[in-house]
Design brief:
Blueprint (H helix, E strand, L loop, with lengths): L2 H21 L12 H14 L4 E5 L9 E5 L4 E9 L7 E6 L9 E10 L6 E6 L4 E6 L3 E6 L8 H5 L3 H5 L4 H11 L11 E2 L3 E2 L5 H14 L12 H11 L1 E2 L3 H6 L3 E5 L4 E6 H8 L1 H10 L2 H8 L7 H15 L10 H9 L3
Parallel strand pairs: 3-5, 10-11
Antiparallel strand pairs: 1-2, 2-3, 4-8, 5-6, 7-8, 7-9, 12-13
Helix pairs in contact: 1-2, 6-10, 10-12, 12-13
């Protein structure tokens, strides 16, 4: 089997999954190991359709990497790593296998990720060569690759580091290769207990577009930042450190510094509001984007309620939750939800 023939197999697998989820939506409700047999069946279908002879090695509940190995009559091995999510978010990001590669099947010519968003008959599927969708190295209980099918060609972790999967998995000290790379670009490697990028970064040093996204995330996920609580930034600071490996000595100032300010909108001017509302207006597009695209489970955890499926419902929920966190002090005569809606949805 050639690389091109294997690519054709993967195309047929995606074709099979797209049709099968509509015929048997009950099989596409749960993520994890329940999805793997569907992909295996898709491989069998693809081989028949393409008139290719190969052995398909798949062990339900197995822990080898990759999950499925396709071996032709000449002993050439191709791998399929199966990933899935039942979350409703729009990202194609998930933790991959361990950097240590202790369960790696040797001799694989090419590995491909088959990723399913399992939503019954509305399931969607994508595939990409494994090395091309490794965006970073993160840490759970051990260093793992972070998979992101949306990264551009040439922008993977391996492209940036001039390393490759085989080089790391076959090295006697794979972690040292990674930490040496980070040190070579002036970053300090570290390891935390949760899924955290492997280097510490200062907020002020990251690209402006990323700063904008992170501030938008804060406004969208942590409504308590509008309150007068002395701990209102704790959850956001914790999230930045543990999920993004970012620390920010000036975090509070990014939201509240500057005293009171007029917020000039298209149809109204809100005079002498706390500076956080001016910043909400400045970052409103990033906030709306995050509210729309955020994973439902994450929003539920952060908001304490089940978020709506659509953007309009979610915005209404956000307005209500944030308004509940705003003190009446200095805003006694302001309709808080209306003010927030005007600021957030201003053209």
């Amino acid at each position: 089997m050639t690389n091109n023939e294997f690519d054709n197999v993967i195309e047929k697998v995606l074709e099979y999954l797209s049709k099968d989820c509509k015929r048997h939506p009950e099989k596409y409700r749960k993520s994890g190991e329940d999805f793997e047999p569907c992909v295996k069946n898709g491989v069998m279908y693809a081989l028949r359709e393409l008139n290719l002879e190969a052995n398909v090695d798949y062990t339900p509940g197995g822990h080898g990497f990759p999950d499925i190995v396709v071996e032709d009559n000449l002993g050439n091995k191709f791998g399929i790593e199966v990933k899935s999510s039942s979350a409703s978010g729009n990202t194609w990001r998930i933790n991959g296998n361990s950097v240590l590669g202790s369960t790696r099947v040797p001799g694989i010519i090419k590995n491909v990720i088959v990723f399913g968003k399992v939503r019954g008959e509305n399931s969607i599927f994508r595939a990409k060569e494994y090395e091309k969708c490794i965006s970073n190295v993160v840490v759970t209980h051990s260093p793992r690759y972070l998979i992101d099918l949306d990264i551009e060609d040439g922008e993977s972790f391996f492209d940036r580091s001039n390393l490759n999967y085989s080089m790391i998995s076959e090295a006697e000290q794979p972690i040292k290769l990674i930490t040496d790379y980070f040190l070579s670009i002036g970053q300090t490697a570290w390891w935390l207990a949760e899924s955290t990028p492997a280097v510490i970064q200062m907020f002020g040093k990251i690209p402006k577009y990323q700063q904008k996204e992170l501030i938008g995330y804060a406004f969208a996920h942590f409504p308590e930042i509008f309150s007068n609580s002395g701990t209102k930034f704790y959850r956001y600071m914790s999230w930045l450190a543990t999920e993004k490996s970012i620390i920010d000595p000036a975090l509070r100032d990014r939201f509240t510094a500057g005293g009171k300010k007029d917020v000039e909108l298209e149809d109204v001017i809100y005079e002498k509001l706390p500076h956080i509302y001016f910043n909400l207006h400045t970052y409103r597009k990033a906030v709306l984007k995050e509210i729309k695209n955020a994973d439902s489970e994450e929003l539920e955890k952060d908001w304490g309620i089940v978020p709506g499926a659509g953007i309009n419902k979610r915005v209404k929920q956000w307005l209500h939750i944030v308004a509940d966190n705003i003190s009446d002090e200095g805003l006694e005569h302001v309709r808080k939800e209306q003010m927030l809606e005007d600021i957030l949805l201003d053209d």
